[in-house]
Amino acid sequence: MWLPCGCTSKTIVTSYARRVFKSYFCVFGRWKCNVAALMPEAVGFEGVKDCSSLQEFSVSNSASFWAAAARHRLSWIKPFHMVQDCDLSLGRIKWFEGGQLNVSVNCLDRHVHTCPERVALIWERDEPGSEIKVTYRQLLEMTCRLGNLLRRHGVKKGDCVTIYMPPCPLAVASMLACARIGAAHNVVFAGFSAEALAERIRDAQSSTVITVNQGVRAGKVTELKRTVDAAVKDCPSVQQVLVAMRTENPVTMTAKDMNMEEEMLKEDVVCEPEAMDSEDVLFLLYTSGSTGKPKGVVHTQAGYLLYAALTHRYVFSYQDGDVFGCVADIGWITGHSYSVYGPLANGGTTVLFESTPIYPDPGRYWEMVQRLKINQFYGAPTAIRLLLKYGDQWVQKYDRSTLKTLGSVGEPINTEAWEWYHRVVGDGRCPVVDTWWQTETGGICITPRPSDPDAEIVPGMAMRPFFGIKPVLMDTEGKVVTSNPASGALCLAQPWPGMARTIHNNHQRFIETYCQPHPGYFFTGDGAYRSKEGYYQITGRLDDVINVSGHRIGTAEIEDVVNQCSAVAESAVIGYSHDIKGQGVYAFVVLKKDADDQEADLSQQLNNMVSKKIAKYACPDFVQIVQRLPKTRSGKIMRRVLRKVVERDLDGLDDLSTLDDPAAVQEIIQGHRELC
Ligand code: WTA
C-alpha cells in the first residue's frame, strides 16, 4: 500500500470545481488585452498597458508591484507592514515583514475550500500506465496526518527535517507537513550517496529523516533505506527515521525507524497550521559552489512562495485545468519550485515523474504527455539531446496536441536541441521557453515569456528578464556594461522576493559569494551575452562549478574525493563539452612517487570513490595521469590551461607566461592525445 488515508487512484475533477476554477483564471488567457486580463493586481499601475510596460513598472516600482502581487496571490494570517528591507551590499534581504502566513494553507487549504476534488498531483510511477492521482483534499489529509505525526515525535517550529525520497506524493506531503508545523525541510536528491547524505543531515542538524524502503527507477530497485541506515550511523542528531513503503519488500527496521504509513493512520486529519513570519525559514537545499563543501541555500516563506507561484503562472502561461509536467526530481530546486510550490500555490495539477526519459523506451515522455494530457512540459536539455539521437519516430508515435508550452532548464540548450524540441516535439506550435535561474534565485529570472504571445523567441536564448528582475553585465573591471551587444558577468541589480536569504550557518560565505564580487549587486556566477536587441543568452559558469546532465557539481568537491585516494598526490578536475550530458568530468591526476600507475585500475577506483562519496553523476569520464599540473608561480592550479587542452583549443594557449613550468603543458597535451 502506498497511498495512505483512503486515497483512491482515480479521482474525478467535479464539473463544479472546473467552473469555479475557470471563472477565476480564464482572464489570464491572452496578453494582448487589457491590464486586468494581463495581471489583475496591475490595474492602476501607472503607464502599464502591456507586458513590457508591466516589466518596466515592476523594476522601477518594485515595492508597489510586489506588494500588490503578495496581497492578491497569497492568503495572509496577518498582513505585512513593510514590503522590502534589503541591502544587497550587506546581504540583508527581507520581504513582507510583519506578515504571517502558512505555506501549506496557501498550497492546500484554500483550494480544498473551493474545489476539494481537483487533482493536485499525478504521480507518474516508473511503470507507464500505473499513475496515481491525488486530489487536493487527499493531499491535505496526508499532510495533516504527517504534520501531527512529526509534532507527536517532537519536531517543532524551527527544526529541520531531512527528506531522502524520490518524487512521490508522500515526499510532497512531507515537505508540506514541515511547512504546516513550521519546520524547515532539507530534501536531499535520492541519488546522493550515504556520505553525501550524512554531510547534509549533519550540517542541517536534523533529528528526523523521512525516506522510503526502496526506490524504483527504470525497472531497477535501489536500496534507499539502506543508504539512510549507513548515513545516520554518522549523524548523532538523528533520533528517528520515518520509512514509507514504496515497494512491498520488507526492509530491516532499527530502533529509530517507524513505518510511516502505519503511524500516519493513527493521526488526526486536522492539523493546526503554525503562523509563520514571512522571513522564517521554509527550506534548505544544498547545492554546489566553487569550494569543496556544499552550501545549504536558505529560502524563506512568503517571498519564495510568491515568486514560485508568479513565475509558474506567467512563464508557462499556466491556465485553469492545465496539467503541468515538470520532469525534474524533487531533490533539485526545479522540483521544489515547479513540481511542488509554484503549481500547488496556483491550485494547479502537477506531475511527479519517477522514471527516466528512456524507460521503457525513448518514447516515454511523449507517451506520458498523451496519456496524462500534459499541457506544459518542462525538462532538461540533456534529455532532449539524448532523445534527439533516437529519432523523430519516438515522438511522432504519440499525440502531443495538448502541449502548449515547452520549457528547458538547468544548462544552455544548443540550437540543434532547441529546434528539434520546437519542430518535432511541439510540432512548431508551442513556444519553447529556455528558462535561466539557479537554486539561489528561487525561481525563473530570465525567460522568453511572459511577453506578448507573438513576441520573438530566438533559439537558445533565455531572452528577457521576468517581472522585478533587472539583469546587468559587468566587465572585467567590475563596471556595468551599458552598450549592446555585450558580454560579461551576469549580475542582478535589485533584490526580488524569491532570492535566497543566506547560506545555512554561514552568512559570511553568502556575502562573499554573492554580494562582495560586485558590491550592491547579486552575482550569479554565470557569464552572459546580450544581443543588440537586448536579449540575454547564458554562456556558462565563470567559476569552478560544472553542469553534468543538468546536475550542478563543484569541481573542488570531486577533487576532494580524488585526493583521498591513497595513490593520488594531487588532482585537478575540469568540465569539458559532452554531446549528451552538456558537460563531462575530466580528472588530471598526479600520482604519489611509490604508486603503481595502472590507469584502468585507477579510473575504476576513483569512480567507486566518487559514487560512494558524492553520487554516480559526478564520476570522471576520463582520468589522465600526469607528472605535474600546470601552476602559477604562486602555486595555483591553472585550470584555464587544462580546459583549453581538453577542448583542443591549443591556439588559445597563448599566455603561459605566468606558468611556473611551461613544459608541464606539453606533457599534458601529449598524454591527452593518447588517452582520447
Ligand atoms: C545553469 C537550476 C544556461 C547556470 C535551475 C546556473 C542554465 C546553474 C540555465 C544553476 C539556462 C540554469 N541556460 N544555463 N536556461 N538554467 N543554468 O542551482 O549555470 O541547479 O548558474 O539551478 O545552472 O543550477 P541549479
Task: From the structure above, extract its key features.
alpha/beta; 8-stranded mixed β-sheet; disordered N terminus; 7-stranded mixed β-sheet; 23% strand; 21 helices; binds 5'-O-[(S)-ethoxy(hydroxy)phosphoryl]adenosine
General description of the model:
Its EC number is 6.2.1.1. Residues 557-636 form the AMP-binding enzyme C-terminal domain. The strands form nine sheets. This protein has an eight-stranded mixed beta sheet with strand order 12-11-8-6-7-14-15-26, with helices on both faces. It has a seven-stranded mixed beta sheet with strand order 5-4-17-16-18-19-20, sandwiched between helices. A five-stranded antiparallel beta sheet has the order 24-23-25-27-28. It has 676 residues and is α/β, with parallel strands linked by helices. Helix 5 crosses helix 7 (169-181) and helix 20 (639-646) packs parallel to helix 21 (663-675). 53% of the residues are buried. It is 33% helix and 23% strand. Residues 287, 332-334, 409-412, 434-439, 462, 525-526, 538, 541, 547, 552 line the site of 5'-O-[(S)-ethoxy(hydroxy)phosphoryl]adenosine.
